Amino acid sequence: MRFFKLIFGLVLFGLGIVMTMKANLGFAPWDVFHQGVANLFDISIGTASIAVGFLVCVAVALAGEKLGLGTILNMLLIGLVIDATLFLDIIPTMGGLFGGIAMMTAGLFVISLASYFYIDSGFGAGPRDSLMVVLERKTHLPVGLCRTIVEGATVFTGWLLGGPVGLGTVLAAFGIGFCIQIVFSLFKFETTKIQHETLQTTLRRFVSL
To answer: Domain spans of the chain?
Structure first.
């Protein structure tokens, strides 16, 4: 059941990301960077997301952060879902400001709902969240400031590489926390009560079956 909750959450996460992209107001911070990388290497944004996720996984592992099954599947599955959804073209591109804001808001809520399922599975944090944890541990700065530093750096670098920055980037950066708070409150979900399982523990449990 936990595994299916993880997979469902990650698929939903990928769909939510595409919704924010289709808002046509500029991408969310990490997706600005992913698109910039995609432009640089002439690859799809989903492939760029997977490549960036892999490099972040390596970096946080070298920094001593333990990875989980959720960390690995986050790296792989979300990028695949993004590319598949864009290829199938099942989500319309918005053409106006109000439609774009509505799509961006809906996408952020879908991502927030996806985060609930994904985190509640207890299989470990995603690569990018793990990066913020590492930065907090190494610098002793507040986690909110660490998130701002990471996302600010990704947006700036992505923008230099031609990633789309706009009103949607600002809405995503400041709106995601609000949306997550609403969704988590509706489910009475407290992330601090989740005991995440490392990849080593998951593999041991799988082998013992």
So the answer is: 2-207
CB atoms < 10 A from the CB of 204, how many?
Answer: 11
Q: What CA–CA distance (Å, rounded) separates 112 from 185? A: 11
| pLDDT of residue 179 exceeding 80 | yes
The yes-or-no verdict on residue 208 having pLDDT over 80 is no
pTM for this entry:
0.92
The secondary structure element, H or E, covering residue 92 is none
**Are 122 and 194 spatial neighbours (Cβ–Cβ below 8 Å)?**
yes
User: Is the distance from CB of 185 to CB of 118 less than 8 angstroms?
Assistant: no
Neighbours of 120 (CB within 10 A): 18
Instruction: State pLDDT tens for residues 38-51.
Output: 999 999 999 999 99
Contact 84, 11 (CB under 8 A): no
Residue 64 backbone class (left: φ over 0; alpha: ψ -120 to 50; beta: rest): left
**Please, how many CA atoms are within 13 Å of residue 166, restricted to the half-sphere of its CB?**
16
User: In terms of DSSP H, where are the helices of 23-93?
Assistant: 29-41, 45-62, 69-88
pLDDT single digits (tens) 100-145: 999 999 999 999 999 999 989 989 888 888 887 788 888 888 867 8
Distance of CA 201 to the CA centre of its chain: 24
